[in-house]
Design goal:
Layout (H helix, E strand, L loop, with lengths): L18 H28 L1 H4 L2 H28 L3 E3 H34 L13 H21 L14 E3 L9 H32 L7 H21 L5 H11 L4 H27 L1 H15 L1
Antiparallel strand pairs: 1-2
């Protein structure tokens, strides 16, 4: 499973960043994100025209997916920071949700890019699966694929002898508990490279096709230009998601040039390369949309009043 909050359990040294400061950094940022997401979902719920568009349905699905990912990730972070131990049977659901939603993100971005491609090239003969009343089939397929990958990863691992009794053995909820065998590490690396590479190819293909065919299509050039910018934005969102792959590099650089404790390095990587990109990605997309931006601004003003 994806290593989301793999913090060492020892935090006693006086030179280490206090746990309170770490928590005070994470909770406000997450609360602001949660508030913004709640406002955007409320806009979707109050305006029927968004629910009649496959594009906005997929965007709402991305908001829900990222909210679940960050919620489970932050809960795991708080449990580890508080050194709270619980039975492995209670940790597995959090780890499962965190990993599945992490896996889901690039798949959603690829689907949103393909939706823009279909909307531009087949405006009058849209395939049934891409219509707003059928898009749930594609969404469920994404969840099924993500769940299957996580289940396969768990099934190929070797049993942990330290977890002989999953109902009574107290452990810290760390992903490493379920990723001990070398074959799981290899599977995770191969899976991540394959999925992100495939999504990158899909986004690049849709962008280039829209770019090449722009002059041939008898459509409003403004709408085609917006579609190109949307696909390009999905590429930027994918790059934000891929920042997690830079964690081994940053760990090596920090160890070489700074004498940080292991848990401070882990927190730095978590905050900068996992938490922050997940916060920025949906917010950038939501506030960029001119239609949504107006409703979001009004919602914020109402809340402030």
């Amino acid at each position: 499973m994806q290593n989301v909050t793999n913090f060492p359990s020892n935090s006693s040294s006086h030179s280490r960043l206090p746990v309170v400061i770490k928590v005070c950094m994470v909770i406000p940022v997450f609360s602001i994100f949660l508030y913004c997401i709640a406002v955007m979902l409320r806009v979707f719920a109050c305006h029927r025209r968004y629910l009649d568009s496959s594009r906005y349905i997929l965007f709402a699905h991305m908001l829900i997916n990222d909210t679940l990912q960050l919620l489970s990730s932050v809960l795991l972070f708080l449990l580890v920071m508080g050194l709270v131990k619980s039975a492995i049977v209670f940790c597995v659901p959090l780890l499962f949700i965190s990993t599945v939603t992490y896996q889901n993100t690039p798949l959603i971005l690829a689907t949103m890019s393909l939706e823009r491609y279909v909307a531009i090239f087949y405006p009058l003969q849209c395939p049934a699966a891409w219509r707003s009343d059928r898009i749930w089939i594609i969404i469920m397929s994404l969840w099924l694929l993500s769940c299957m990958v996580v289940v396969i990863n768990a099934s190929i691992g070797e049993p942990n002898p330290a977890l002989a009794s999953p109902l009574t053995t107290p452990v810290l909820c760390l992903p490493i508990l379920l990723n001990l065998s070398p074959i799981q590490i290899l599977f995770n690396a191969a899976k991540s490279i394959f999925f992100f590479a495939a999504v990158a190819v899909i986004i690049l293909f849709t962008y280039m096709r829209i770019l090449i065919e722009t002059r041939k299509l008898r459509q409003d050039s403004v709408s085609v230009s917006k579609a190109m910018h949307t696909v390009l934005l999905h590429g930027c969102q994918l790059l934000l998601s891929m920042l997690a792959f830079s964690i081994p590099i940053t760990e090596t650089l920090i160890v070489m040039h700074a004498k940080w404790p292991p848990e401070d390095i882990a927190f730095f990587n978590y905050f900068c390369f996992i938490l922050t990109p997940r916060l920025l990605s949906p917010l950038i997309y939501g506030f960029r949309d001119q239609s949504l931006r107006g409703y979001i601004g009004k919602a914020f003003l109402c809340c402030l009043k």
